Amino acid sequence: MTGDKLQMTMLLDFYGDLLTDKQREYYDLYHNEDLSLSEIAENVGITRQGVHDIIVRAENTLLETERKTGLIKRFSEMQAEIARALILAEDIKRQTENEHTAAMAAQLAEVLTALKG
To answer: Where, if anywhere, are coiled coils annotated (predicted)?
Structure first.
């Protein structure tokens, strides 16, 4: 099974509704709750191989959806640009002597902070 923890969590957050309930549950238990394949198999009453197959199918669905849509990639790029704009707004606020410009930069920083989440 593939990917780092953050990537796998983001895939589930963005595209989890495309999975069956069983796929979503097993994927979450494996990637987010750190249960082993054996632990999941024991808890749900199927074989370890059955759990593995379901998780691999879920991963393939999520990865293929990201490959086609690129939403996570675009989201990450937007977050990076918002962070960059926030730094620029803070720099303007600090470096300006004009109170009106400083107030506008502060408002811009607030908006960017809200967008960044």
So the answer is: none
- The contacts of residue 98 (CB under 8 Å, 6+ apart) are none
- Supply angle C-alpha 75, 35, 27, rounded to 5: 40
Asked whether 25 and 2 are in contact (CB, 8 A), the reply is no
DSSP characters over 26-37:
HHHHHHTS---H
Domain ranges in the chain with CATH number 1.10.10.10 = 5-69
What top-level class would CATH report for the domain 5-69?
mainly alpha
User: What's CA 72's distance to the chain center, in Å?
Assistant: 7
> pLDDT tens, 18-69?
999 999 999 999 999 999 999 999 999 999 999 999 999 999 999 999 999 9
